[in-house]
C-alpha cells in the first residue's frame, strides 16, 4: 500500500467527509422514535413469552408436585 504524507492524508479525509450525506433533524427524530417503539414492542413480546413459559411450567410442575 502506498504511503502518503500527512498533508495528503488530511486532504483525502476532508474530501471523503464532504461526500457524507448527513441526516436531517426530522430523520434523526423519526428513527429515534422508531427505535423506542420497536424496543417497547420487543420488551412486551418477551414479557408475554416469559409469562407463557412460566405459566406452562408452573402447571406442569403442579401436576407432579
From TrEMBL:
Bilayer-crossing regions: 28-49
Membrane topology label: Single-pass membrane protein
Gene3D superfamilies to which the protein is assigned, alphabetical: Preprotein translocase secy subunit (1.20.5.1030)
Record carries keyword Cell membrane: yes
InterPro entries in the record: SecE_bac, SecE_sf, Translocase_SecE/Sec61-g
One GO molecular-function entry: protein transmembrane transporter activity
Highest rank taxon of the organism: Bacteria
Pfam families documented for this protein: SecE
Subcellular location: Cell membrane; Membrane
Keyword Repeat: no
Any GO CC annotation of this UniProt entry: plasma membrane
GO process terms (BP): intracellular protein transmembrane transport; protein secretion; protein targeting; protein transport by the Sec complex
Keywords recorded for this protein, A-Z: Cell membrane, Membrane, Protein transport, Translocation, Transmembrane, Transmembrane helix, Transport
Protein family: Belongs to the SecE/SEC61-gamma family.
Function: Essential subunit of the Sec protein translocation channel SecYEG. Clamps together the 2 halves of SecY. May contact the channel plug during translocation.
Record PANTHER family: PROTEIN TRANSLOCASE SUBUNIT SECE
Subunit structure: Component of the Sec protein translocase complex. Heterotrimer consisting of SecY, SecE and SecG subunits. The heterotrimers can form oligomers, although 1 heterotrimer is thought to be able to translocate proteins. Interacts with the ribosome. Interacts with SecDF, and other proteins may be involved. Interacts with SecA.
Name the UniProt record assigns to this protein: Protein translocase subunit SecE
Amino acid at each position: 500500500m502506498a504511503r502518503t504524507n500527512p498533508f495528503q492524508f488530511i486532504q483525502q479525509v476532508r474530501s471523503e467527509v464532504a461526500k457524507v450525506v448527513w441526516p436531517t433533524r426530522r430523520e434523526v427524530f423519526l428513527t429515534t422514535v422508531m427505535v423506542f417503539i420497536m424496543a417497547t414492542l420487543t420488551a412486551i413480546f418477551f414479557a408475554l413469552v416469559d409469562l407463557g413459559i412460566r405459566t406452562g411450567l408452573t402447571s406442569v410442575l403442579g401436576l407432579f408436585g
